[in-house]
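pls design
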């Protein structure tokens, strides 16, 4: 649930602070067209104030047609473009203002807000640092700087920037909200919730604060309360895109999947068919068992953002549910790009095995990833490599080395953290089914491919005999992994 700069971050973008004539006319009216441009600009500004955005955009365009270097029209058209969901165009317009007036504080602030929308946070920081050099007491600049730092994952620095803003203006609502968001990212949820509660006590009709309070409650898994926050935010601002998106995510977390799909569809119908919305709608479809719809939604997300990691991974997992391994395994290789991927450890200097190169007389290093259960499941493919003439070395979790040392075809087991030996090839364990061309009908299913060491088996048998003295068959089941996931539930 990403936080985007709200309207209060814009300089002269809201009707309560945008006043005609407040900005000095910086164009040289003596030049031909300048006076005409100024007249169009005055009309555009009035329409902009009234939120008549299509009309304002047309009028700004007429001003710039009369005088292409009319700085105020360039600037305010940029603000309007950002407000109407076109931040890339907005950044170009506002940046052109700074080519003419590099010390324009309002343009520096609005460029930074636009760059934050584009997630170009380093560039936003540069603009804000320039602004603060010119105006060290600019509270909005310090707040925007905190938002940029949060976008870069520098949450301690973000908190410090928000605190600095609050020393300049105690109780500043946007600074308090930003501080709450920084605390949330630091997993200090109780403090974050207190911060947002304080903001809303002082200013109840604050949609950004309701939205961000909902995000904190979502993180705390208090979904009913989170949903109430998003509903209140939308009551205050009916077309608040971020709150609509967060509401849909909350419905999905509550396992109200039909309602979640409807909420995502409403966002898409309103013109917000971005990768995140399409990907999350796919997840809701998947939980309804509508796998074809889910995959179509994941594919649409990939078209919207070809580099969207989770859209590829989610389609892979959905393909697995359908038994479509041929499409699933290549897509599943996208996991290497996921921030939470557990494909760590030193890079091995051997080439990755492609599934085609001969393994006869070669050494291949298999590397474990993700959780213990994945290693236990996917180690079953190691004997197939040994049957091709490979010497198989398995790197795995220290707690599994004893168990894995009894796996057929594995010549050596190395715990994570120890030096890796030289090898001719390496492969990640979860890539093996795809590399080996495994289908639903050819999954190795031999019984007891793993066996406990005899000493431990004897000890545990004696323990069970003492605690559960019965002649009946005793079966132990691992019934769930991460129990908080909807799939596990």
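designed seq:
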């Amino acid at each position: 649930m990403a936080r985007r700069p709200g309207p209060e971050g814009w300089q002269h973008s809201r009707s309560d602070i945008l006043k005609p004539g407040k900005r000095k006319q910086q164009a040289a009216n003596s030049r031909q067209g300048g006076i005409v441009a100024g007249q169009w600009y005055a009309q555009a500004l009035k329409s902009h104030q009234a939120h008549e955005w299509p009309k304002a955009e047309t009028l700004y365009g007429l001003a710039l047609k009369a005088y292409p270097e009319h700085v105020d029209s360039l600037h305010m058209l940029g603000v309007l473009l950002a407000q109407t969901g076109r931040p890339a165009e907005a950044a170009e317009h506002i940046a052109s203002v700074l080519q003419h007036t590099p010390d324009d504080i309002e343009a520096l602030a609005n460029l930074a807000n636009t760059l934050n929308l584009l997630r170009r946070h380093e560039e936003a920081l540069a603009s804000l640092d320039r602004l603060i050099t010119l105006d060290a007491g600019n509270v909005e600049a310090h707040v925007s700087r905190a938002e940029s730092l949060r976008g870069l994952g520098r949450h301690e620095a973000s908190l410090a920037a928000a605190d600095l803003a609050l020393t300049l203006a105690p109780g500043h609502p946007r600074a308090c909200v930003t501080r709450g968001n920084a605390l949330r990212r630091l997993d200090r949820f109780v403090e974050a919730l207190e911060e947002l509660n304080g903001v809303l006590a002082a200013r109840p009709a604050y949609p950004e604060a309701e939205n961000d309070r909902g995000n904190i409650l979502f993180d705390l898994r208090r979904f009913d309360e989170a949903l109430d926050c998003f509903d209140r935010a939308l009551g205050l601002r009916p077309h608040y895109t971020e709150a609509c998106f967060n509401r849909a995510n909350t419905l999905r977390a509550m396992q109200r999947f039909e309602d979640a799909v409807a909420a995502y569809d409403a966002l898409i119908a309103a013109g917000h068919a971005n990768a995140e919305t399409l990907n999350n709608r796919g997840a809701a479809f998947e939980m309804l068992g509508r796998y074809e719809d889910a995959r179509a939604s994941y594919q649409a997300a990939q078209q919207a953002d070809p580099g969207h990691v989770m859209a590829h991974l989610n389609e892979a997992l959905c393909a697995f549910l359908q038994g479509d391994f041929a499409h699933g395994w290549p897509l599943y290789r996208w996991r290497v790009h996921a921030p939470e991927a557990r494909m760590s450890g030193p890079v091995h200097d051997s080439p990755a095995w492609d599934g085609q190169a001969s393994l006869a007389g070669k050494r291949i290093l298999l590397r474990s990833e993700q959780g213990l259960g994945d290693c236990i499941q996917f180690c079953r493919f190691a004997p197939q490599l040994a049957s091709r003439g490979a010497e198989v070395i398995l790197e795995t979790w220290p707690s599994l080395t004893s168990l894995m040392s009894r796996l057929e075809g594995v010549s050596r087991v190395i715990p994570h953290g120890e030096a890796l030996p030289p090898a001719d090839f390496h492969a990640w364990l979860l890539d093996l089914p795809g590399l080996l061309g495994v289908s639903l009908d050819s999954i190795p299913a031999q019984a007891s491919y793993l066996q406990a060491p005899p000493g431990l088996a004897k000890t545990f048998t004696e323990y069970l005999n003492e605690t559960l003295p019965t002649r009946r068959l005793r079966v132990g089941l691992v019934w769930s992994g991460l129990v908080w996931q909807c799939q596990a539930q």
